[in-house]
Amino acid sequence: ELSASPRLRMDGDFLHAFLDRELLRSHLPMRLRYAGGDIQARSFEYDHLNGRLSFGGRSHARLDPRSPRP
To answer: Any residues with CB less than 8 A from the CB of 6 and at least 6 apart, and which?
Structure first.
């Protein structure tokens, strides 16, 4: 069910999407929020085809633990 999936929020001044290569990239600072976590990075690149997310420069992350399943 889609409503059960966590949402991804990306905040920054620049985002370049290469649709044919399924690639997102920013050379400027970004803030990503997903599933209770918060990541701030100087730059990032997400390659969907290879399942790789990488950050450049100084990065900070806060990841909340998942609550136990009943």
So the answer is: 34, 35, 36
Successive 10-residue mean pLDDT values, the chain, 70 residues: 72 95 96 90 94 93 80
pLDDT score, position 2: 52
Phi-psi region of 36 (alpha: psi -120 to 50; beta: other; left: phi over 0): left
| H helix intervals, 1-70 | none
Nearest to 54 by CA among 69, 67, 62, 42: 42
Q: How far apart are CA 41 and CA 53, in angstroms?
A: 12
